[in-house]
Amino acid sequence: MRNTRARNAPLKDIVIVGGGTAGWMTAALLSKLLSRHYVIRLVESDEIGTIGVGEATIPSIRTFLQLAGIDQVEMIKATQATFKLGIEFVDWRDLGTSYIHGFGKIGQDMLWLHPHQLWLKMTAKGQARHFDHYALNCMAARKNRFCPPDPRQTGSPLADIDYAFHFDASLFAAFLRKESEKRGVERIEGHILSAERDGESGLLSRLLLADGRTIAGDLFIDCSGMRGLLIGDILGVGYEDWGHWLPCNRAFAVPSESAPVLTPYTRSTARPAGWQWRIPLQHRTGNGIVFSSDHWSDDEAAAALLANLDGKALGEPRLVRFRPGMRARSWDRNVVAIGLASGFLEPLESTSIHLIQTAILRLVALFPGTAFNPTDIAEYNRQTAFEYCDVRDFIIAHYKVTDREDTAFWRYVKHMEVPDSLAERLALFRDSARFFVHGKAELFREESWVQVLIGQGLDMHYDPMVDMIPEAEVANHLRDIEEVIADVAERMPRHEDFIARQCRAPAILATG
Ligand code: FAD
Q1: Sheet containing 318-321, strands listed edge to edge, beginning at the edge strand earlier in sequence
Q2: What is the DSSP letter of 132?
Q3: What is the mean pLDDT of the chain?
Q4: Which of 134, 149, 275, 358 makes an SS bond possible with 107, Cβ 3.0 to 4.6 Å?
């Protein structure tokens, strides 16, 4: 392997290529953690622009803000953000169905048994309500309520609320840019045409810009978006395509006027050849449709999107093409690809921004000293692949586990072969609804899998240990959970009122 650094001097110059969400998140975090020791520059091209989507997050975003030294309220006001308690999935199991994948805890365990085990037994007997009733995040979302967790309320579900944000992607990048520049990151406007490599080591040495400037660096972080300018075009690292498991490969996005009620959750509605998102922000609603070009034409998808907005469209739908999958290696020589340059999984569970964040932290954990150590690089790539495959399986499960067979798209995904790792996990769930963590870096834990698989209608048998407990006790335990959650959710503030009191953003004109 020729991944070792040629010279034995400490690494000094970090060059980030790209100023989308990935580029500026990287700049913000590295400038907070490393800026005293490194020169950090970011090159971006206004003419090329950013992808301009990516507005729903998951709770780990709060860790990013904390590590990057960013105040939540300031970020909310600057990006027109709202709070997110989870995602509502409409028509996914079948037409007319709905469930919420909420963040946070589900109910209360009974001995060592988790609430879904009790629920599976009682629901088979017709003695349990919709599963949403047993998780505070879900019930608060259904009632449009929000408040942050209150750790002082030990024993109350209020201590276990978990939340993320919806924000305007362009405003988020602009906000991070301001923070990064304050900390000394230099932004360079320019169109990169190519790059030079050191003949002996194969390491990238400098970027060549269209206006003749060159930018030298020791470590290059490729945040250039789907094209993967450095990792793909210059270093020739291949791309693993997962289109056979995730046939959606295009999206249209369009903002619309705000709806009368500011919902504290993302909505994902299944459509004949894909699904539609709805993301409420303070100044507008973000909408889009993700679809398979094998099953729908662009015109059909755009028409379905526009026919299903709950406010007036603020512009024309914008088409984005993508390839689900990941780079064969995200770190090669002295180039680390982060964001869309390293791979993309459709935004069904809002995971891309999270994957940017974990990639930056992984790079910090394996940060090179004077040389690019092949074992560090291999470890980085191994962890990245694990994460991508883990998220991939969870997303595929939403398609595979469904009762829908009403269109060619749904028939395909319902009957397709899935990765062995997912098939084994589904088998375990079918037999005894049990879940075991495969690795520390696993993003989606039992609560997530359980909510989605129950919501999608997987035929699961409960853990036989539930039968050791008298049925009346199981029924009482479930009823207690439901009552406490209904009561607490009812007493939480309305999402709009909470925002108005704590973090109302200045009014701005929303455009397409
Ligand atoms: P980009 O935004 O494409 O930025 C690339 C940057 O590189 C730009 O600044 C560009 O100017 C620069 N660049 C490129 N080539 C050159 C060059 N030659 N010279 C100079 N500069 C150059 N993620 C979520 O977490 N939640 C979501 O809800 C979500 N929704 C999504 C919906 C859709 C339809 C899609 C496609 C993605 C979604 N994502 C979502 C993913 C999210 O949008 C991205 O992960 C995120 O925006 C990061 O993009 P990026 O910075 O890698 O790339």
Answers
A1: 98-102, 86-90, 266-271, 274-280, 285-291, 250-256, 318-321
A2: G
A3: 95
A4: 134
Q: Is the pLDDT confidence value at 453 over 90?
A: yes
Question: For residue 248, how far is the Cα from the chain centroid?
Answer: 16
Q: Is 342 inside a domain boundary?
A: yes
State the alpha helices, DSSP H only, in 115-240: 115-124, 136-142, 169-182
- Same domain? For 266 and 220 the reply is no
Rounded to whole angstroms, how far apart are CA atoms 448 and 451? 5
Distance CA 114, CA 116 (A): 6
Q: Would you place residue 512 in the very low, low, confident or very high pLDDT band (cuts 50, 70, 90)?
A: low
Residue 512 lies in a domain: no
Distance CA 136, CA 107 (A): 8
Domain count, the chain: 2
Pocket of ligand 1 (CB under 6 A): 18-23, 43-45, 48-51, 53-57, 169, 191-192, 223-225, 229, 251, 253, 288, 320, 322, 339-341, 347, 350, 352-353
Task: Identify which of 327, 118, 299 has the alpha carbon closest to the alpha carbon of residue 226.
Answer: 327
Taking only the tens place, the pLDDT of each residue in 251-266 is: 999 999 998 899 999 9
Distance CA 192, CA 207 (A): 7
CA 133/CA 478 separation, integer angstroms: 10
Distance 340 CA to ligand 1 centre (A): 6
CATH assignment at residue 14: 3.50.50.60
Mean pLDDT, rounded, for 367-386:
95
- Looking at the structure, tell me whether residues 171 and 70 fall in a common domain: yes
Cα of 22 from ligand 1 centre, angstroms: 7
171 CA → ligand 1 middle, Å:
13
Average the pLDDT over 125-136 and give the result: 97
Q: Among 48, 180, 248, which residue has the most ligand 1 atoms within 8 Å of its CB, making it the best to mutate?
A: 48
pTM flag (> 0.85):
yes
> Within a domain: residue 452?
yes
| DSSP per position, 414-467 | HHS---HHHHHHHHHHHHH-------TT--S-HHHHHHHHHHHT---PPPGGGG
Residue type, 367: F
- The secondary structure element, H or E, covering residue 252 is strand 250-256
Has residue 507 got a pLDDT over 90?
no
Give me the residues paired with residue 34 across strands: none
Q: Which two tokens stand for residue 271?
A: 């459509």
Cα 236 from Cα 219, distance rounded (Å) = 17
Pull the structure tokens for residue 186.
Answer: 């230099």
Given the CA of residue 209, which atom of ligand 1 is nearest to it? 19
Query: Which atom of ligand 1 lies closest to the CA of 340?
Result: 52
